[in-house]
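Our consortium's second objective concerns turning raw sequence data into structural hypotheses that experimental partners can test. To show how far this objective has progressed, the report includes one record in full. It was chosen at random from the queue rather than selected for favorable results. The single chain below, 182 residues long, was entered without modification.
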Amino acid sequence: MAYDARYWDGYAASNEARYSDEFAGFVAGLAGSLRCGSVLEAGCGTGIDLRRIAGPVLAAGADLNAVALGMAAQKMPTGLYARCGIERLPFGDASVDMVFTHGLLNHLDEGAVEAGTAELYRVSSKYVASFEEYLADEGRIDDRRHGRNMGRRWAGMGARIISDVQMHPDIDGTRFTLAAKR
């Protein structure tokens, strides 16, 4: 699936309405409880999921959309941001304690998911986490998105699954998967 700049610019413009202090707090709390000194969100958009992460934890975000990254840097100037796709992250091997995605992998085709998850695993030193809409068979959700089975994918890379649970069964099919690198 080709990158659609118009779609993602519009998504960035409306992203503030999707901010959830509860979810951002969950991510920050997770990083704290796992004793992470650095966190990277791949597909960070405007950085809404990173905003509750505070020093001494380094918050980093990667996204293809320049508009979104500009908004992220304005709202959270202490973060580190990289304009890139998930398939080529400009971070060293095992350089970030926890790497996560939130709804990104649902939008990518299979080739990008394969390459991207390998990159996420490469740059993570301790944990990989994903908050993605779940379908066991990874079939289509709609014309833009596929369900993802990240527990199966992370385990296939050799990670130890810590949690693989549906987040909001009454709202949507988002599943939280947390895995530790071995």
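The partners drew two points from this record. The mean pLDDT is 93. The two ends are 32 Å apart (CA to CA). Both points have been shared with the crystallography group to help prioritize constructs.
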